[in-house]
Structures are given as C-alpha cells and as structure tokens.
Design a protein that fits this description.
Three copies of one chain form a homotrimer. The first copy, chain A, is of the alpha/beta class and about 425 residues long. Chain A folds into three domains: about 1-50 and about 150-340, 3-Layer(aba) Sandwich (Aminopeptidase); about 55-145, Domain of unknown function DUF2172 (Glucose Oxidase, domain 1, 3-Layer(bba) Sandwich), CATH 3.50.30.90; about 340-415, Orthogonal Bundle (Arc Repressor Mutant, subunit A). Chain A has twelve helices and 18 strands. In chain A, helix 10 (about 370-380) packs across helix 11. The radius of gyration of chain A is 26 Å and the shape is elongated. The first copy, chain A, starts with a helix and ends with a strand. Chains in contact: A-B, A-C, B-C. The interface of A and B includes residues 47, 109, 116, 120 and 308 of A.
Chain lengths: ~425, ~425, ~425
C-alpha cells in the first residue's frame, strides 16, 4: 500500500482532470475499475458538474528573474482550480493572491476555489515574508473549460445483491493521509475481498469528494435501497489511534460492528457521534438518504496539524498504520459476512454438553470457549444476532462465531428460518 | 425590580387580607391586573377558601411595661393567621406560644397556622433567652372572619390561544427572595412581553401559594388543556447559581428549553428532578393535571439558611441577580416563541451553498455559522424542532434560529406543513 | 440455621444417593417436605437421570500399610460419582487419578465426574508431594447402578395460586457456603413464611443442581406460567457483602425488589447482570422459560478462594451472616406481598392534609413521612406500584407502605380496580 501511495503522491489531482485519470490508470494495475465520465454541466440534485481543470505549468518569476514559486516543485503551490493568467504586477498586488499558514511558517497550505473563478498561489510563510519589493510575473498555463468529471468503481459480487459500500475520494493533490491513504486502503481491500466467496456484494467507489458522491448518488438513487451499509475510507496512515465516526442513525449494524472491532483491538480508540461536516458521509447521511454509512479513520481530518498542507506528506504516513487500518476494515467486513442469527434447538434448559464431549469432564476450569457456548445457548432465541451475543458476552466476534459453528455441527444451533 | 421589591417588602401579606390587595395596587402601577375575589367558604377541589385575616396591631408588653415584641417593627413577629387575643399571662405560659430559631439566635422565624386557629409570636432566640420572669400582656388586634381571598392575573394575548403560564405567590409577608423576588420578576416580565407581537398568549398569575393556585385551577379547569407549559417564579434575587426544577413529566418543551438556556449561560447551574413538595408546581403537576410546569430559581427555597426568616430581607437579594434571572426567563420564552420545525428543500445530498454565497470561498475556516447551517440542512427532516437541532449541534438556540432564518430566506428551509 | 448446617455438613451428598435422603430427613424436622423419586434413565428434556451412587468406604493404603487417604475422614477425598475399584498400583499410576490445588497446598479440592465413569481421589497438595514411592492399594467400595434421584419441595399456600419459587441445591458433599448455606436459609425461610396469611404461594424446592432443576422443570412445565418470580438461594453464610445476580430479563419485579432492599440496607453490596453460568438460574432463565429468577448471595460462587474445596467448611460461614441474608430474603418477600398499586382519590391538586391531621400545624419541619405522603399522592395515578414510588422517592418500601396504609385509612388512596 505504501508503494502505491508513493507512486500516486506526486500526481496533481483535483475534482476533475487528467491527474485523476492517471491515478485510476495506476490503481487499475491492482484492480479493474469501471469508469464513468460525467460531462460538465450535468445536473446532480442541487449541483452541476463543473468545468474540467488541467494545468501545464504555473509559476511566479521574481524581480531577480528566477521562479520564486513553481507548481513543478509542489502541486500545492497552485490554488486548486486556478484560472489561467499571465500578468506582471507589484508585490503588494501579488500578495492579495498568496496563501500561507502564519503559525506553521515552513509548510505550504492546500487551498481551492472550485466554484468561484479566481487565481492564487500557496507558499510557506517564511518564504512569503522574504519576498522582496519589485515586479512579479505570474504565469498559469492551465485550461478551465467544458470537459468531464471522472469517477470509478468496482463491484465484487457476492451471493446477495445487497451491497456494502466502501468509498474514498480522489480529488486531493499531493496529500498522503487525507484522501490518498483511503484510496490505497480501498484499492487493496477490493483486491483482498475478490478472493473470497462473499455473502454481500461490495462496491468500492473512487470519486472526487462532495461533487463526486453527489453525482454518484444522483445516478444511482434506486440502488441505495439495496445498500446495507457503508464506510468512508480516509486518514488511514498516520500513527494516531483509530477513530470511528458513527452514521447519522448511530445504531446500525456498521456502527455496532465497527465499535466492536475497536473495543476488542486492545488499543486505545475514539468513537465520535455523527456530525454533518467532514467527508462524503455528509451526502450518504443527508436526510433524504440517511444511509448506514460511517467512517473509520486514524486521526480525523482537521484533528492533526499537518491536515491540508504540505506537512501531510509521505513521511506523515507509514506502512504499519496502513496495515493496521486495513486489518480493521477486514475484521468489520468479517462480522458483516458472518453475523447470522441462530436459534437453539434446546430452548428449554441447557442441552447436556458433557455427553457430546463439549464440556470439561472433571474440574473447575471454565475455559472462555465454554462460557461463550453457554452465552450462545442462552441467547440464541431468534432475537439476537451473533454480533449482539458477542457484545453481551464481552467476547470477540471471531471467538463467538467459531464456537457457534461448533454448536451448529453438534445440532445445538440452527440458522434462523426467517433469515 | 429592586425598587418595586423595596416598596412591597414592608407590607404584611398573607393568603388573604388587605396587604395582598395593597400589593396588587402597587403592581398595577406597572401592569394592569384582573382581580378575582373568592368568598370565604368557596370550595376548590378538596379545599375551601379560609376566613380573611387582617391585623391592626399586635404586641406583647413585658413586666417592665414596654412593648418587648411588636408587629409594627416586623410583621414576621406575628404568627401568620394569628387569632385575636388580649390576655395577661406568666412568662412560662407565654413561651408556649413563642417561636424562635435556636441555631440562628439573631433572626426572627416565619411561622403560620392557616387552618388551625391559634395565636403566637416569633422572635430572635437571643431576645427569647433574655425575657425576664413576670406578667406579660399579649394584644393581637386582628380580624379573622368571613371575607374573601384575592388573586390577580394579566393575559398578554398572542396570535394563538395556546397559553404559557407564569405564576408567582403573593402570600408571604416581609420576605424578599422567597415569594417577593418572584412577584417582581413576573411583573416586569409581563411588562416586557406586552411590547411584542407574540405567538403564544402569556398568562401571569399572582395568587397565594397552594390555596390560590388550587382555587385558580378549580375555576379554570377547562383552560388547562390549552396551556402549553409554565413556570413557577420564585427565589430570583439571591446571589446563588440558577436552579431549574423539572416538571413532573420531565421532558416537556419547557424542560428542554430551560436546561438549554442554563447550559449555554456559561455559568454553573443546577438541574433538579421534580419532587412533589415545594411551591405551586405541586398543584399544576398533580396527577389529574400533570401540566408541563417547572420552576426556575436561583438558590431553591429551603436550600439557604435565610429561608423563612427575617434573614431573607432586602440585603439578601440584589438587583444584578434579579436582572440575570429575568434575562433567563426572556431567553426561555424566546425559545418557545421561535421553536419552529423546518424542512429542508434539498433532502437528498447537501444543497450547493457556495453558489448562494453561503460558504467560505477559499480556505479551511469553518466558522460556527457554517457548521450550524450544515446541522440544520442535515436535521431539518420534519422530525426535529430548532430546539432539538440546537441541542444536537451543541449551539445556542439564538444562533441556530438566526442561521435558520437565513436559510429560509435562501429557500433552503421551509416551515413544516404540519405546524 | 448454623446448628442445622453443622448437622448436615458431614453427610456425603451427591446428585443422587442416600446422603441426599438423609439430609431431607433432617430438614423434615423443621418443615414437612413432599419428596419425588425419579428413576434412573428418566428423560428430562435433553438429559436423563443418571445412575444412583452410594459409597460404603473408600481409601488408599500406602506402601507402609496405613490408609494415606480415607473417605471416612473427609468425603471430599473421593471424586464425586467415583466408580467402584479395588486395585494395587504404582505411585505414578495412582497420581494420574489424584487431584490437588497446587496454589492452596493445604486444602482438599472438590471434584466430580457425573457423566463420565471414572475413579479418583482428591487431597491436599502438601500430602500429595510427600507421597513416597511404592505400591498403593486403592479401594472404593461404592455402588453406581440403577436407582433414583430424589428431590423435595414444600408449598406454602397463599391466597393466590401464583407462586414465588425459592430453590436451593442439595448435591454438594461437605461444603458449607456453596450449597448448604442456601439449604438452611431456604428451610428456615419456609418455616418463617408458613406462619403468615400470604398473598402469593411459596414453593421451596430442594434438588440437585442442574439435573435436579431440569428434571423438576420437565415435570412442572405447565406450572411455570403461574410463577411470578423466584430466587436461587446459595452462598449465604460467608462474611462478604451481599450480591444480587439479576434475572435474564433484568427488570422484573424480583430484580427491582432485590436491588431496592440492598440499596436501603445501609451496607455495601454488588449487583451483577445475568450471565448464563452459575447455578440453577441457568435453567430457569433458559430462553424457552425465561423466568423472572435471580439469585441473592453473599460472596458469589467462584469469587472466593475457599470455593469448591475443604476450605469451604464450618469456619468459613457464621450465624450472623446467615441471619443477615435470611433477613434480606424476608424483606424482598415483604415487598412482593405488599406491592399494591393505589390510585389517589384526589387527582386534581393535593388533598388538604391539614384538616385530616396529616400535616404539621406550624413550622417548617417536613418529616420524612410527610414527604412520602406527598410522593404517594403525586404518583398514585394507577401507573406506579408502591415499589415504583419507593424507588422514585428514594425511601424504603416499608416506610412507603406504612404511609400508604395511613392514606388508605383516610380515604385518600384506594386500591387500583384493575388489580
């Protein structure tokens, strides 16, 4: 994942443009994608797909004739969706279009102006402070014209048409944790899942944030009813603790499963209630959809100082964190896949476990698996799923599932007819 | 308010009598009142209006011929509803009818015997201890005979017949925080409200505690169905923190609104669950009415040592606390008045705020008003009122309302049809 | 109770056999019992009654000719349900059948092998470590053959057929706190209850753990619908704090009543949620029955180091703890018996208590009984039982009941018609 991340990092992505397409080309080396091009001007609910933006070069030449700011060095230097311009101006005029972070003087901020045509450059505040008086020539050789917005998806078909939606956003230029770490986790999650015979179908969606998910929803409105639940994948690679942001409903199966996995991870973690700002869960959880979509991250966007700046680079993320995060996604999916409801075949009193070789013959030991067996036999009344029982027993889902499988083998549990 | 309080303070009020009428005369200089005289013996549910009590003078002459206790000095000296008596007796006989506070030896307690004809005097324990042996002449020149009980009310009519009930009690003699501070807050609240075009009608009720509210309820039973909610106003002037005592139902709009105001007051406060002793909320929240009536106070009756004694005098209350308390009543009423339910016109995905000039063009700042906008657009699904949304967003109602008004102007929210 | 405990202690009980019958003979000196003999092989849901086990003698003769282990000294020495054997063997062969507690080297553990025919001895680890090499002669003169399992019960008939079930288990040999303390508390509770005219009928059940309660349930399935609630009585005599283990439903009347009694006991206590291991509540709370059966103990089985060993002897329990425990059972039953629902005859406003002599005439004192009176008048709306009101008022049930009785006498409360 870290290698893929490193390869994708330098490309200049935005909500439209060839950088996005190039990124999808690279991802297609791992998994196949079905791409959709949506023409500029296409309506999507209250929105319309914007013009397509592509940059050839962009720089500022200082009074001494050298390029003092150059997009070629770092694509964050250019305001996202910057309009074309060639103009010479004084320092003070230029400064009206420069963006810096005064409290982090050595990093370049990330700024955009998607829906208001403007031009600008971003740079380190230390450099900004050292600019000398004189004439500056601004050159932005870019196109901002009718074209199309690209999104891509892959469907891993399971036995059911019911889908689990995994989404990430592909609109950020050179930033690692925000956006890109989610893209690589989503990619390799798709690659991992396609090996298995799955119960649910899994849709992995790569799209620009906001306009991308809105457009996808507007074109797939009928499909949303068959989406069991989903997760927005982002901020997966920093070394902070895991954070789960609940869906708007807050108590759906994805919420319970994600919190279960974190609780049994033996590490500190954070649970946040839904709030209507953040990433694409805003759209999936808008009142007209109100889907069971949460988001599993490490340190949340906005909660680390490197967020939306050149500080969010390759050194800010690490392979180990990426690995730990994808592992948690896999564990959550494992729960979704196996969260069956069983019914005990012996509702009246416990069955005799000893005669089936399921119980310690002598002695006071009650190994964990025996206690789980007793929880299952007591709670498998058709009202509780395996996940519910794991929560009540305070045991990891995987252990409960393993013990349940054994009880099924012995004829002590059967699948709920209603399922 | 403090001036009105100072003027009302010396008058001898009780559950009946001319002191109450004189008090209403003074209040009528601020607001107009509609008075009701209810004849002695009139039935009110399980109760009957008692005889009317009026005192001309009352004193005790000591062995040395001087007035050792005199009602003219402090009306608390006389047992409330003391029957007429002229009698000379020994100190020991007298002491059977004297009431003091041994643990606060310098203050005069407040005692009454409304429904059991008796006589008595209250005095400082230090004076009690210094009374010398000898004959004491007790003179109570009072009348306790058929007459009437007076209550008064004012109705500030709003667009709806539905009423908000604000009640205070006018039966306490010279005590400032208990009873009288509520009377002046209720008076000036009425004076304030009548300036506005209001949604609800506001009924401000001045009546003796217990028998007064019971009599009012017995004569206005049919009206109670149209009372949205109410507050008992008392103990408004001490320098302690604010206390909200919940209604019996505990989760009505007045409970949520009052707690919201206190939570956003930036000061420490106290919430108490309903308990069936205290003031007139006992009657409004009796099971046959079970109205949405709570009580907003500062330090609760019984919770300060000056309670029901001469310690609860003009020095115990202050203008600043009275002002802070009435401000909170006004904020609560502001919530009731504007707690509309709106529905988003764009339930599916967020509307595009940028094109309406509602969103920061560049930059990472999300001012509080933008976050509130997102909360409103996400939660205005017809299920949640503005107050519900303010609670979820953790933002003051006034801010949420202001942002909602702006969204209405932009056509992004509309009033719920059902309202 | 301690005398009865001391007399029962030495007897070798198991899930079947003459030791159980002898124990019932002794209990019958206090209360009469109705015994049931269930033949070996009788089916009970998934189980069958096992063979009957009786021991004449059992010992191990060491290389020096003396009895190094002897059942006559302590019946815990013999593995429960040990099969007959006469055999001479080496120390190493013998050791395969010896059970000790390495971390408590001076106590003899309690072990059984009911459903897997085996032989074995239990001994102190210190003795085990000192056994010398040589030949050992093992003699177990026991019978393990078709017979019957004995359980016993007594029904104390009340005015209603609805029953409260009190169960204890009689299958443990010489152990005091686990099992036997419950047996003596149950015995004297039955003896106490039969003096009174009771509302509910009380069934006291003495049976071996697990197979006994399962067999009883299989033969009394129809009766379970008329069982209001129940308690499993065990671990009543140690000096630890009281523990209440909730029923599976967790919020039944027995749960509320037991927690109420512990909360008002003025002593520290423990509440545990239901878990499906432990004692016979496992069967009563199996999903097909899901009865309102909890368990009131002192230190829970498994939570003290003397559990299931010779450490759980007469010195581990004391008369005072037994007395305190039975007192709590009596208080819980007192609540069940008197947990009436009353309705106020004055739902609209408070009734006038003063004219009925129910309220302090003068003065600020509100004794606890007046506050309880106000709670009752406010909450007796037909929705809340006396126990519900005691919980809301934070007052002991007995006080609330006493005040309620007084209000009934004054015609202010009447029994709910629906009851």
């Amino acid at each position: 994942m870290y290698d893929l991340l490193s390869e994708l990092f330098p490309i200049c992505r935005s909500i439209t443009g060839d950088g996005v397409r190039e990124s999808y080309d690279i991802i297609e080396r791992v998994i196949s994608l079905c791409r959709t091009e949506v023409a500029t001007g296409t309506k999507a609910f209250d929105w319309a797909v914007p013009k397509e933006w592509n940059v050839r070069e962009a720089y500022v030449i200082g009074p001494e004739g050298d390029r003092v700011i150059d997009f070629a060095n770092n694509n964050l230097h250019l305001l996202g969706y910057c309009k074309p311009i060639v103009e010479t101006m004084s320092l003070s005029k230029l400064k009206e279009h420069l963006y810096t972070l005064e409290d982090q003087p050595d990093v370049v901020p990330y700024r955009t102006s998607y829906y208001d045509e403007n031009w600008g450059f971003c740079l380190a505040h230390s450099q900004y402070a050292s600019l000398i008086e004189g004439d500056y020539k601004v050159v932005v050789d870019a196109t901002l014209e009718d074209g199309s917005m690209t999104y891509a998806e892959t469907l891993i078909e399971g036995r059911l048409d019911e889908e689990v939606l995994i989404t990430c956003y592909t609109c950020h230029p050179s930033m690692c944790n925000d956006s890109l770490s989610g893209v690589v986790v989503a990619t390799y999650l798709a690659d991992y899942l396609r090996q298995f015979d799955l119960k649910y179908s899994y849709r992995i969606l790569f799209a620009p944030e906001t306009i991308g998910s809105i457009t996808w929803l507007s074109r797939n409105e009928a499909r949303t009813d068959s989406i069991l639940c989903g997760l927005v994948v982002t901020c997966c690679g920093d070394s902070g603790k895991l954070t789960y942001k609940r869906s708007r409903r807050g108590d759906t199966v994805i919420d319970v499963a994600a919190e279960h996995v974190l609780r049994h991870s033996c590490k500190d973690y954070l649970i946040e209630d839904f709030f209507p700002y953040g990433s694409d869960e805003r759209q999936f959880c808008s009142p007209g959809f109100n889907m069971a979509v949460g988001s599993l991250m490490r340190t949340r966007y906005g909660a680390y100082k490197e967020y939306h700046s050149s500080g969010d680079d390759l050194s800010f993320v690490n392979a180990e964190s990426l690995g730990d995060t994808i592992q948690k996604y896999i564990e959550i999916i494992d729960i979704l896949e196996h969260n069956t409801t069983y019914v005990t075949t012996n509702p009246k009193c416990e069955p005799q476990l000893g005669k089936r070789g399921l119980y310690s013959k002598i002695g006071p030991t009650n190994p964990q698996s025996e206690l789980i067996m007793l929880w299952l036999l007591n709670l498998c009344d058709g009202e509780s799923s395996l996940l519910d029982i794991a929560e009540k027993a305070g045991s990891p889902f995987s252990s409960v599932r393993r013990v349940a499988d054994n009880l099924v083998k012995h004829g002590l549990l059967v699948k709920d007819d209603l399922e």
